[in-house]
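Table S2 (continued). Query chain:
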Amino acid sequence: MSGIILRLCLLALAGAALSACGSTRGPVSAGYGYDAGDGYQSCVPYARARSGIDLRGDGWQWWEAASGRYDRGQTPRPGAVLVFQRTARMRDGHVAVVSRVLGPREIRVDHANWASGGLKGRVARDQAVVDVSSGNDWSAVRVWYPPAAVVGNTVYPAYGFVLPNRRWAAAE
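Corresponding output:
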């Protein structure tokens, strides 16, 4: 009888270990994770679904599209969407959903399709974004760079934050 109980305990432990391996969130670096997901995701549909902000167009177009429909501002809050301007390197712009505010110049975001290589098209959660603008208005930001596991050196221009009309619930 004790042999059967021992085998059942070992099977339960093995199952727990395997379920951890099958997690859809895996850390890239302490506190920074990517969802395995079901293939490629773009930033716009991800931000729309995650924030509840119903805007269309490329990421950079969200700022103007929000005018008259959603509040916009320069102060981050959870659930708001940070709208990146388009640049030569980022011709479609980018959008990212604020998951946490750590201070007046540092936030964490959830976004899709930020990284390159094997992480391209993946959802990244809890990624650092730092305000480096001279006016402390989030018009210039640096973003977590997954391959180097640091906040990158590139400064990206941003419009600010589009605010959701409803109370936002953080992801589990």
